[in-house]
Amino acid sequence: MNPKFESFQKIIQNPIKFRFFLLQKLPSALIAGLKVQEISTLEAVITVKHKWLNQNPFRSMYFAVQSMAAEMSTGLLAFGQLYQRNPPVSMLVVGMEAKFHKKAVGKISFSCKDGLAIANAIEAASQTGLGQTIQCYSIGKNEAGEMVSEFWFNWSFKAK
């Protein structure tokens, strides 16, 4: 495992350090209540509970909150690979697609298992100096294990 990813993983898994990270980098995610359930070099799982603050007029979770949690499940995998990387590589979402299947109520878990593909794209960007684009998939499931939504994020990586 990448020792720098392990260092990043320790920050993310510490509730106080993670809240500080969100306050600095993603304050809206802090307000919405996003939490890291699991993170490794291969997979990230982000959870968020439906509550008054993140609801829509139809008494379910607002689509933007779902998008935020899904994006975080893909983005943390990339951010962990880029943490303290030398030479640095930039990352940017360049596209997104989503499908919504069921009302999002209760606790929703968004998981992405594209960590290896992300690491390979970042390494290729670093080695070649050429921008790399990868599509990452995140699936949102409710507490019963039913698919609520699914997202595809196109990430671009470029050596600085």
Measured distance between first and last alpha carbons: 24 Å
Secondary structure category? alpha+beta
How many β-strand runs? 6
Mean pLDDT: 94
Describe this structure in words.
The protein is α+β, with helices and mostly antiparallel strands and 160 residues long. The chain has a single domain (3-159), classed as Thiol Ester Dehydrase, Chain A (Roll), CATH 3.10.129. It is 39% helix and 32% strand. It has five helices and six strands. The chain has helices at 3-13, 15-25, 27-32, 63-82, 115-128, and strands at residues 35-39, 44-49, 89-100, 107-112, 132-141, 147-159. A six-stranded antiparallel β-sheet has the order 1-2-4-5-6-3. A hairpin with a 4-residue loop joins strand 1 and strand 2 (44-49). The radius of gyration is 15 Å and the shape is globular.
Write the layout of secondary structure elements.
Layout: H1 3-13, H2 15-25, H3 27-32, E1 35-39, E2 44-49, H4 63-82, E3 89-100, E4 107-112, H5 115-128, E5 132-141, E6 147-159
Antiparallel strand pairs: 1-2, 2-4, 3-6, 4-5, 5-6
